[in-house]
Amino acid sequence: MRGGSLWQLGQCLSRRLAQSKSTTPKPRHFAAAPAAEPAELKKTVLHDFHVEHGGKMVPFAGWSMPIQYKDSIMDSTLHCRAAASLFDVSHMCGLSLRGRDCIPFLETLVVADVAGLRPGTGTLTVFTNERGGAIDDSVVTKVRDDHIYLVVNAGCRDKDLAHISAYMEAFKAKGGAVDWHIHDERSLLALQGPLAAPVLQLLTKDDLSKIYFGEFCTLDIHGSHCFLTRTGYTGEDGFEISVPSEHAVDLAKAILEKSEGKVRLTGLGARDSLRLEAGLCLYGNDMDQHTTPVEAGLTWAIGKRRRAEGGFLGAEVILKQLEEGPPIRRVGFFSTGPPPRSHNEILNSSGEKIGEVTSGGFSPCLKKNIAMGYVKSGLHKPGTEVKIIIRGKSNDGVVTKMPFVPTKYYKPS
């Protein structure tokens, strides 16, 4: 997921709604949102459904998306942790690679050991460039040896598809057997929280207790043939459901109705606070084309075989960092004062700049400031005291482990 100011935009919206005393409808204007004519924005098939349910629509990565509904971002965040939330993430791009050589092709572009995945399982991976920088992060699933399913970020769609296409044509010109299909005919829903599985189980005959975190299957949900991945972007147990677009609204309605009020529609504002509490990267903020997976704290995503063999773009840079250590590292912080924001400077005890905040805000669950950012290697250990400069003033901070809120992924006991 990508976007730099969702948290600030959401908080601004919450304040304006709370301060409004008049019952006269007022036009919605947001200083943080880019200027765009409504006609220029793409809409998911659930757009009108969001509006009917009180969704506050804002421009996001070229789409009109709900940042929140009638409840506040803080309440929505807490509700997801306690019950369950339903997110429309249809702006993201799902695609399938097929053919006998789809795995060796994909492994030239990503750091994951895709060949080593069991059929029906997936992992987070990173598309890299020639310098080892991250073009995008993605969840990649091996459906079968000749079928890979992956989802890329909305804001990276055009560059990702151009990148994959260019390398695919070169690969095929050398005799490689691989083709792709972009799933624009499908929509994507994310059902997240401790009640996600019990509610979804009411809509399918398949036993969801046998599907663990990171696993993928195809099944019928409420009469629709869906791709189901037990994953998410909140740190909670949950699912991403790829459903034929003509059935997306009906499925969303069925989930809400079956839950008897326990599942709430939730927007991008709470999705951002949930992922930050879970210590997850937001592409474009916490990771970009100049950041390697090693620097971003995603060394675990580089398969053991890939570390030995390389063979992906930028491998020379990345493997050298694995051996010698990266110059900078992504870390978490607790801090005092106002909540840190992207680009706030981080200083050491001597007043020397050692890094920069990439994401930050007030944690609804922990009731204190949290942030993540990059610091020089050697100053990344938990307990290291720092100063975070916010609006020209110095505030105390301390490096801490992530995730800030423990994850609750459904794994075999």
Provide mean pLDDT, rounded.
92
Poorly predicted parts: 1-5, 11-38
| Topology-level CATH name of the domain at 327-400 | Elongation Factor Tu (Ef-tu), domain 3
Largest sheet, order of strands side by side? 10-11-12-9-3-13
Strand content: 25-35%
Overall form = globular
CATH architecture grouping of the domain at 327-400? Beta Barrel
What's the helical proportion of residues? 10-25%
Fold topology:
Layout: H1 6-19, H2 47-52, E1 56-60, E2 63-68, H3 73-82, E3 84-88, E4 93-98, H4 102-106, E5 121-128, E6 134-144, E7 147-152, H5 157-173, E8 179-182, E9 186-192, H6 196-201, E10 216-221, E11 224-229, E12 238-244, H7 248-259, E13 263-265, H8 268-277, H9 304-309, H10 315-324, E14 328-335, E15 345-347, E16 353-363, E17 368-376, E18 385-390, E19 393-400
Parallel strand pairs: 3-13
Antiparallel strand pairs: 1-2, 3-9, 4-7, 4-8, 5-6, 6-7, 9-12, 10-11, 11-12, 14-17, 14-19, 15-16, 15-18, 16-17, 18-19
Domain Aminomethyltransferase C-terminal: 329-405
Organism: Musa acuminata subsp. malaccensis (Wild banana)
Protein name: Aminomethyltransferase
Give a brief outline of the structure:
Helix content is 23%, strand content 30%. With 413 residues, it is α+β, with helices and mostly antiparallel strands. The longest helix is centred in the middle third of the chain and has 17 residues, at 157-173.
Question: What labels would you give this structure?
Answer:
413 residues; 6-stranded mixed sheet; Elongation Factor Tu (Ef-tu), domain 3; alpha+beta; GcvT_C; transaminase activity; GcvT/YgfZ_C; GCVT_N
